[in-house]
């Protein structure tokens, strides 16, 4: 993906991003500059924090990218998968219930979530919850629809 344009955000817009991510994910985004990036042929609305693509807008809501999740370590809206799910989730597959070992009990169906793996705690994907957190552990069915994952175009973005 090529960058079409970059625009610095005003301090009040940056503060809104910081406040939203703190409330939603329990993270603190410490950055001196925020820029929005418009990408050629891309549907992503990306925000660079000190030049790194750490935030994206999904349905008008700021949320972390996979790189952002690994840099900021969210405390809320986290779905943890076992080692057997890593390969599939990293390739963009939806998260299936048998691979989930733990999920934030406050997750509600439709929420944006981050997916990490249990062994090293690395974040693998961003997705949308298809069920509530307490219902994510079980035997069958999809529980998170993948939106962005390790290795996709957004993850590989360099600016």
Describe the fold and architecture.
The chain is α+β, with helices and mostly antiparallel strands. The protein has two domains: 69 residues, Nuclear Transport Factor 2, Chain: A, CATH 3.10.450; 78 residues, PUA domain (Archaeosine Trna-guanine Transglycosylase, Chain: A, domain 4), CATH 2.30.130.10. Strands 7-11-10-9-6-8 form a six-stranded mixed β-sheet. Strand 9 and strand 10 form a beta hairpin. The mean pLDDT is 94.
What key phrases describe this protein's structure?
Archaeosine Trna-guanine Transglycosylase, Chain: A, domain 4; 159 residues; 37% strand; 19% helix; 3 helices; Nuclear Transport Factor 2, Chain: A; 2 domains; five-stranded antiparallel beta sheet; alpha+beta; six-stranded mixed beta sheet
Beta-strand residue percentage: 35-45%
Q: How many whole angstroms does the radius of gyration measure?
A: 15 Å
Strand ordering within the main sheet: 7-11-10-9-6-8
Q: How would a crystallographer describe the biggest sheet?
A: 6 strands, mixed
Shape: globular
Low-confidence blocks of residues: none
Tell me the domain tally.
2
- CATH architectural arrangement of the largest domain: Roll
Distance between the termini: 10 Å
CATH superfamily of the largest domain, by name, is PUA domain
User: Can you tell me the CATH class of the largest domain?
Assistant: Mainly Beta
Output mean pLDDT: 94
Instruction: State the share of residues found in helices, binned by percent.
Output: 10-25%
Task: Figure out the total of helices.
Answer: 3
Write down how many β-strands occur, each being a DSSP E stretch of 2 or more residues.
11
Reading the helices and strands in chain order gives EHEEEEHEHEEEEE
What fold name goes in the CATH topology slot of the largest domain?
A: Archaeosine Trna-guanine Transglycosylase, Chain: A, domain 4
